[in-house]
Design brief:
With 227 residues, this protein is an alpha/beta fold. It has helices at residues 2-27, 81-88, 127-145, 147-156, 165-174, 180-203, 213-225; strands at residues 34-38, 108-109, 158-162, 208-211. Helices cover 48% and strands 7% of the residues. Strand 1 (34-38), helix 2 (81-88) and strand 2 (108-109) form a beta-alpha-beta unit. The longest helix has 26 residues, at 2-27. Bound molecules: 2-acetamido-2-deoxy-beta-D-glucopyranose (5 copies). The site of one 2-acetamido-2-deoxy-beta-D-glucopyranose (NAG) has 3 residues, from loops.
Length: 227
């Protein structure tokens, strides 16, 4: 039951994201890019380029088995949702931000398996690190396209998010005896930091946000618990 409602939620959200991209395709001439933030659900293989002690799952069989055994680091037998969204809309499939030599002027995927909204880590790239990397891409776009066109691109582009699940899993493992009010307080911290992330992107011109279910659910639960 929970599973199927998740699926419905995903489909509705991504249908919305596709519509977003579609409408603006007609209305705007600036190039639309896809920027992707998240955890293992969206990670296209960034973690294999980190000097992390964690094993980089997704870089060996059976991962990638439906694509001639090409294991890319995606924790999947093939592509992931952000890749399909890009393909459906004739956009470039975003390269992993960390991939050496990647052309980041056509969009970038910053997601990192195991990452969360909170904290700093050398093992994975959490939200802060992903935003820091996004800002480097913004600088690159300004260099390559000029300030105005870069701004137009950032405004037309779509920002996909899948984050928050790992924060809750970790919290529940570490504080399995926490009280309800402690949990609510923790949730508020996660939501506040995620909201800050959205605001940073908004300040740089971003307008089209497509958060995946975890993210939406966080915001919804948060709203229902703190009027
Ligand atoms: C990983 O370590 C190597 C060698 O110390 C260094 O050249 C490289 O920049 C590091 N990569 C990252 C992502 O920190
Ligand atoms: C993929 O690798 C597995 C295990 O090594 C092998 O059994 C299979 O035949 C390979 N498939 C393709 C399409 O190369
Ligand atoms: C995507 O590109 C193909 C071939 O270039 C074209 O036939 C198709 O109509 C395009 N689809 C969209 C949604 O623009
Ligand atoms: C989370 O948000 C709080 C309050 O806005 C801030 O003090 C803290 O630095 C943020 N932490 C992270 C990891 O973003
Ligand atoms: C949770 O509380 C129970 C009962 O007080 C205690 O036995 C248990 O060790 C606690 N677990 C943790 C993780 O603190």
């Amino acid at each position: 039951m929970a599973k199927s409602s998740n699926l419905v939620c995903l489909i509705i959200l991504y249908a919305t994201a596709l519509n977003f991209i579609g409408c603006y395709a007609a209305a705007q001439s600036s190039k639309k890019l896809l920027f992707v933030f998240g955890d293992s659900v969206f990670d296209p293989g960034n973690n294999q380029y980190l000097n992390s002690s964690m094993e980089s799952t997704g870089t060996y069989f059976p991962y990638g088995m439906t694509m001639n055994n090409k294991s890319t680091g995606r924790i999947s037998d093939g592509l992931l949702v952000p890749d399909f969204i890009a393909l459906f809309r004739n956009l470039s499939v975003d390269p992993p931000y960390m991939q050496p030599g990647a052309d980041l002027t056509k969009g970038a995927n910053f997601a990192s398996a195991g990452s969360g909204v909170l904290g700093e880590s050398n093992e994975v790239m959490n939200l802060n690190k992903q935003l820091e990397n996004f800002k480097k891409v913004v600088t690159l776009l300004v260099e390559k396209k000029g300030e105005q066109e870069a701004k137009n691109i950032l405004t037309s582009s779509v920002y996909l998010f899948s984050m928050g699940g790992n924060d809750y899993f970790r919290y529940n493992m570490q504080y399995s005896n926490s009280t309800k009010s402690e949990r609510v307080a923790f949730m508020q911290t996660v939501v506040a930091n995620l909201t800050n992330g959205f605001k940073e992107i908004y300040a740089l011109g971003g307008r089209k946000f497509a958060p995946e279910c975890w993210t939406i659910r966080l915001l919804a639960i948060h709203k229902s618990k703190s009027p």
